[in-house]
């Protein structure tokens, strides 16, 4: 396996809250004060994360995405926050977030401009890394827009990794490197893992079932390439944002996203409005058993075992010789369907040899009992839903 980035961070997939997807690039605070990408938004989310149990459940990062900057750098060439939307500056915001026992993430871009057209880090990697460290930033999401060539893109990702390490501050490095390479060439994941703590592979997640389904299909199609590289210190990012608690997913589809992001050992960054979230969505996102699967210290990513018509069977090796198993029903018509599979399929035949206990984690927790090696298990799964098991 490739050596992970030598910063000692992200030993398990990072967890937190991210403004992109739900709040996008809303910059008109006069017209939309509650939706605007502003100091106030992040302060309010930090308050909610502490008061309503998100921090205690493991969500520790509050992440600023694109559109936080002023349109130009300052007189010394440094990035600066938009003075109207972030009147206290990023350092003060970081101090506030830290006072809550949370960590602050920020966004920049490897190219000359960010995806939304704000100043990028090209030719400023060392300066920007020093700036972020001086502000007390704990994570950098580094996008890949507006780079003139794949060579400059790769060089920029490498240089920013080195620059962040040189600051002496512990800063998780979130890359978009393979996503921008893939249309032209196969990413070298061994190299990427030596520079990045997690790396995005696929398109932006949308608040829709078609988006979630396309991410899962892509991951299964490429699992032979990507699964083996994931582990403590470096993770595949299917696009981190959990859109649970928004508008586009049914309950069963929300269960599927939570279950499958846990199976994939994906970073868990919610993008929703924690000021307005249903008790059901909160229960799902704070589910301790699912989070424990995602955060399992063995650090192995799960994979699809097989497909059978509309059903998919996935497994993820866990510590203490356990396995997480997901049964996904992709059918979008009709009612619940029963799926039966042999337990000899799990763990190369070893998961239930000579016997195993099985617990259902989602959509509701219950003990299923003890099964022998040659047994079969039947589960009933709703359309676009998932049953998550721990074996």
TrEMBL record:
CDD domains in UniProt: GH27
Location relative to the cell: Lysosome
Keywords: Disulfide bond, Glycoprotein, Glycosidase, Hydrolase, Lipid metabolism, Lysosome, Signal
EC number: 3.2.1.-
PROSITE patterns named among the record's database cross-references: ALPHA_GALACTOSIDASE (PS00512)
Reaction(s) this enzyme catalyzes, per UniProt: a globoside Gb3Cer (d18:1(4E)) + H2O = a beta-D-Gal-(1->4)-beta-D-Glc-(1<->1)-Cer(d18:1(4E)) + D-galactose; Hydrolysis of terminal, non-reducing alpha-D-galactose residues in alpha-D-galactosides, including galactose oligosaccharides, galactomannans and galactolipids; a globoside Gb3Cer + H2O = a beta-D-galactosyl-(1->4)-beta-D-glucosyl-(1<->1)-ceramide + D-galactose
Family stated for the protein in its record: Belongs to the glycosyl hydrolase 27 family.
Entry function: Catalyzes the hydrolysis of glycosphingolipids and participates in their degradation in the lysosome.
Organismal lineage: Eukaryota, Metazoa, Chordata, Craniata, Vertebrata
Residue ranges annotated for the Alpha galactosidase A C-terminal domain, each copy included: 299-385
Listed name of the protein: Alpha-galactosidase
Main location as per UniProt: other
Pfam short name (any one): Melibiase_2_C
Any GO BP: glycoside catabolic process
Record text on subunit structure and interactions: Homodimer.
A GO cellular component annotation in the UniProt record: membrane
Any one GO MF annotation of this record: alpha-galactosidase activity
């Amino acid at each position: 396996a490739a050596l992970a980035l030598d910063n000692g961070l992200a030993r398990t997939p990072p967890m937190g809250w991210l403004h992109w997807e739900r709040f996008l690039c809303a910059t008109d605070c006069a017209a939309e004060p509650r939706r605007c990408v502003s100091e106030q938004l992040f302060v309010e989310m930090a308050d909610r994360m502490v008061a309503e149990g998100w921090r205690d459940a493991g969500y520790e990062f509050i992440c600023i995405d694109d559109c936080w900057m002023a349109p130009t750098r300052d007189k010394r060439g440094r990035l600066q926050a938009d003075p109207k939307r972030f009147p206290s500056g990023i350092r003060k915001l970081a101090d506030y977030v830290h006072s809550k026992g949370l960590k602050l993430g920020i966004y920049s871009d490897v190219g000359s401009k960010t995806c939304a057209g704000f100043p990028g880090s090209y030719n400023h990697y060392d300066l920007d890394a020093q700036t972020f460290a001086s502000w007390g930033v704990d994570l950098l999401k580094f996008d890949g827009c507006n780079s003139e060539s794949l060579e400059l893109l790769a060089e920029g990702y490498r240089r920013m990794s080195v620059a962040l390490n040189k600051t002496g501050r512990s800063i998780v490095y979130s890359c978009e490197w393979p996503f921008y390479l893939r249309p032209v060439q196969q990413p070298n994941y061994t190299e990427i893992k030596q520079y990045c703590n997690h790396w995005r592979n696929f398109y932006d997640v949308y608040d829709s079932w078609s988006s979630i389904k396309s991410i899962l299909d892509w991951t299964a199609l490429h699992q032979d390439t990507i699964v083996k590289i994931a582990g403590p210190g470096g993770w595949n990012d299917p696009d981190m944002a959990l859109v649970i608690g928004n508008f586009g997913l049914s309950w069963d589809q929300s269960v599927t996203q939570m279950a499958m992001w846990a199976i994939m050992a994906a970073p868990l960054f919610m993008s929703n409005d924690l000021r307005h979230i249903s008790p059901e969505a909160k229960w799902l996102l704070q589910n301790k058993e699912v989070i424990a699967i995602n955060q399992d210290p063995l650090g192995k990513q799960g994979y699809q075992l097989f497909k059978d018509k509309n059903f998919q069977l996935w497994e993820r090796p866990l510590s203490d010789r356990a396995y997480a198993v997901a049964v996904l029903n992709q059918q979008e018509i009709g009612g619940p369907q029963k799926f039966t599979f042999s337990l000899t399929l799990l763990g190369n035949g070893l998961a239930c040899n000579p016997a195993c206990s099985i617990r259902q984690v989602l959509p509701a927790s219950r003990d299923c009992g003890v099964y022998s090696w040659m047994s079969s298990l039947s589960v009933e799964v709703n359309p676009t839903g998932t049953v998550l098991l721990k074996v």
